[in-house]
Amino acid sequence: ADAKTAAAGSASTASTKATEAAGSAVSASQSKSAAEAAAIRAKNSAKRAEDIASAVALEDADTTRKGIVQLSSATNSTSETLAATPKAVKVVMDETNRKAHWTVRH
């Protein structure tokens, strides 16, 4: 009787563990499916972003056309394809104010 009871207990424990393992397998499968779906969505979003970026023409700007400009802090340039930085404007304004102040005093 003791052997039968022990065997029944072991069978019950094994059955419980098998049920738990099956539940874990189902959860893992669901997690894998969710991760795969998220990866597909991310890939599709990246593709859409690449398509949009390639459709937008980024051209250099000039005096007649909007576009991309390069900044420059030069204060002696005659370029019409570079844009002055606030630093360059400040240098010129400081020099202008200094000369104007000197002219008024002398």
From TrEMBL:
Keyword Cytoplasm: no
Subcellular location: Virion
Keyword tags: Host-virus interaction
Start-end of Low complexity biased regions: 1-43
Keyword DNA-binding: no
Stretches for region Disordered: 1-47
Biological process annotations from GO: symbiont entry into host cell; virion attachment to host cell
Protein name, as recorded: Tail fiber protein
